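Please fill in the sequence for the structure shown.

STRUCTURE ENCODING:
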């Protein structure tokens, strides 16, 4: 049975890197990165309407997930989420095609999340630069607050498995993630 794995976590927690490492272990696994899709919608123009571009990217991502899962292949979605709506949509997309839905949230601490985000400020990665741009926008909440909101949301989702993300140690973070997946503790 194909699996859709949501890998939630604060910005700079290692979601995208871990998603890619997991995908490399399983034949034909697709990593659906919403931020990359958003950046592809209108080139550099998405910044003028980031909310609308983000919603478009999510709709496209759901279609990609459904198509790939229907073909019998796994999907990993690394995405920072603080509200349940998109999680519910992902779970429904998996259910509609007879796939399993797993939800993992990478955790450490609000202070660590903020430090990791700040540490990648000079990154050339387009998704990292986009996250920085969004964080610098007027009215943006501090990373610590975003992290707390994410934790509050997942605390109300009993099927979400919390996995410790180790700053600067992607190998140990991957080991923690694989242990959670291997024990089957992520099943709903």
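FILLED IN BY: designer on duty
SEQUENCE:
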């Amino acid at each position: 049975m194909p699996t859709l794995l949501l890998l939630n976590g604060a910005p700079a927690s290692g979601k995208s890197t871990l998603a890619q490492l997991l995908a490399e272990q399983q034949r034909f696994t697709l990593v659906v990165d919403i931020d990359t899709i958003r950046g592809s919608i209108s080139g550099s123009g998405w910044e003028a309407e980031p909310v609308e571009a983000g919603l478009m990217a999510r709709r496209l991502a759901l279609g990609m997930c459904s198509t790939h899962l229907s073909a019998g292949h796994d999907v990993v979605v690394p995405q920072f989420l603080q509200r349940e709506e998109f999680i519910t949509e992902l779970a429904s997309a998996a259910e509609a095609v007879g796939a399993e839905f797993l939800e993992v949230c990478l955790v450490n601490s609000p202070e660590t999340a903020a430090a990791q985000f700040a540490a990648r400020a000079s990154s050339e990665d387009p998704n990292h630069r986009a996250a920085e741009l969004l964080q610098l926008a007027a009215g943006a909440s501090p990373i610590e607050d975003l992290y707390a909101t994410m934790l509050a949301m997942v605390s109300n989702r009993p099927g979400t498995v919390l996995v410790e993300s180790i700053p600067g140690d992607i190998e140990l973070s991957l080991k923690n993630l694989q242990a959670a997946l291997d024990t089957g503790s992520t099943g709903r």
